[in-house]
Amino acid sequence: MTEAMLGFIGLGNMGGPMAVNLAAAGNALICYDASGTAERAPDGAQHASSAAEVAEKAAIVFLCLPDGPIANKVAGELMAAPARIVEVVVDNTTSGAGEARATHDMLAEAGIAYADAPVSGGASGARAGTLAMMVATSDALYTRLEPLLLPMAKNARHVGREPGQGMAMKLLNNFLSGMAMAATSEAIAFGARQGLDMATIIDTVSVSSGTNTAITDKFPKRILSESFDSGFATRLMTKDLQLYVDSCKQLDAPRRLSETLLEQVWGQMLVDMPASDFTEIYPFTLTRDK
Question: Is 154 a catalytic residue?
Fold first, then answer.
């Protein structure tokens, strides 16, 4: 099915390049960003003056916003648009599973379908169109959405049919990512004190049983070069881990490792290095070990 016009709200580090890739695939867009639409929208896209205007011109609207409460607020603005035609909201924001369910329930009262579809892969993945997208919605809606998702996220996955399951998948992924970054930083610091070269550690572990994406991607590309430019902030990692721990508490799920990781590593790094990129976990680890 061809969509006449798509809406995109939230054109920051992730949403901006995602909208560019959506437009580059031949889709007509109307965009809105509270921080400045004209400066951030893809070439050729229409510029809306509000979220309500997007709701009045696009049947499918993508949200890529800082957090769940903001996404819920914008969803309310879409619902309240006097002449809205919006039928579907695709939420690429990272929030808690409970927040996603609340947004789903609110939109359902207005007859608007909802898909929670958070993404992973950082700003570089957003630019390249190689993001992973974790989508929870009905089979029928996923089939309708998939051609629109793939230009932004070649690794889109239909992970569940219940609202909140996409967010749950994203949070468990980021817990694993945060643990891998912290553990790899400690391991490489240990190796360095044994006189091992970082590049040699990376090369050897990447083909051994301890491999992970920190070893295969973040350390060789962002840490070895000391560029520390993944585009994913420590504050975002800490936010996602807090959402994960809070969700575990609500479900009485195991959380010993995640609570320790949040409180003693990422939470402390946020205090000490509030403006840092999350790849700066390695120099933070070296400092904390002294």
Answer: no
